[in-house]
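Before relying on records like the one below, remember that each one covers exactly one chain. Contacts with other chains, cofactors or solvent are not represented anywhere in the record.
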Amino acid sequence: MAKTKKVFFCQECGYESSKWLGQCPACQQWNTFVEETVSKKSTSVKQTLTHNKPVKLEEVAALSERRISTHIEELDRVLGSGIVSGSLILVGGDPGIGKSTLLLQICKNLSHDKMKLLYVSGEESVQQIKMRADRIGEFSDTMELLCETSIDAVEAAIIDSKPEVVVIDSVQTMYSEEVASAAGSVSQVREVTGKLMRIAKQNGITIFIVGHVTKEGVVAGPRTLEHMVDTVLYFEGDRHAVYRVLRGVKNRFGSTDEIGVFEMQPDGLREVANPSEVMLSGRPENAAGSVVVASVEGTRPILIEIQALVSETSFNIPRRTTVGLDFNRVNLLIAVLDKRAGLHLGSSDAYVNVAGGIKLNEPAIDLGIVLAMASSFKNKALANDTIVFGEVGLTGEIRGVSMALQRVKESVKLGFKTVIMPKTNYEQIKKSEEDFKKIKLIGVENVSELLSLI
């Protein structure tokens, strides 16, 4: 007989409790516990435990994983030069941002390589998938569709057809009959993901699973979902905008710093080979508060415009608003400008935005934020052919950053004439064998010296 009982689970981290709690003791989140019914099968037969014996590290044969190209260079870069056989990949993002479209494009390219594919959908009918597939392009006869929500039926179909790549759209719609709770609950998501992971590892099948996201932008369900899979990919950007950014949050087979840039078209997602040129298109000329910074995502330098609007406030407390940047970091830089550079912004509203819908987090963009706010406050525009990068400290010093040479090379490629950078990076580049005759390099040591340039 199967015993059932009521258990409370945290929707954020999956913490289990016998009673409802206001705050989760594991992740410290409030009002995240939901009640679910779980069943435990009782057995009188004592199971025989098998133990694996430890082996010496030097006796283990090092095997190089086989990579499968998706023929989408931006995606291959994020995955680490291709798909690894037997891996479990989670794709998350806002509704309508292009998750299903991207996975169908992957299936189209792999079907042309005569790979056997199975697309499992729990949200759409076969006819709906066919209509979307017709817009993307032609598929070969190795592509199969299945509309099913039972994970046991999906497992039987996988064992029967023996595909090389499986797409599950989405994991929140799948359910297991062994769990009494509804589909999409913490218990169901954890059970379904566990079964998919076992299928992928035992049969060497690559499985893509689509995950819904919450209003905070994280995958719905317990955080253990992200820990169980091999790779976690997030689609960023507004679904009403043209450009999408695919970012690797976790990758056991590659770097987690790479990004891929896509453009939404009527026939699907198109790769953006030169994101810097795209992000700077339509940039205003001789506009106060507009500065171009050289950022690095993984191994790729990207030039992005930062815009700032500083105006006198009409409230008792000035407003601070950021889009695409860390709010606390911008407040910190405002304090540095006030204390170290004599730029009193205490009675001014400050709005800072990253053009293009990309989110930036690296410290090398500090110099661009400071210059943009100072330019808007003084109403003096920076030269259009000037680009900046560098980290700003609390004492007003400008610290060096990594990959300075790559940032300068990207600036030369796009026709910039002046680069403002930390003094330490300037001295390192001067010592290198690279000869930059087409661009002027300026090294600065502190914020006061930086503001004297405008």
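The mean pLDDT is 87.
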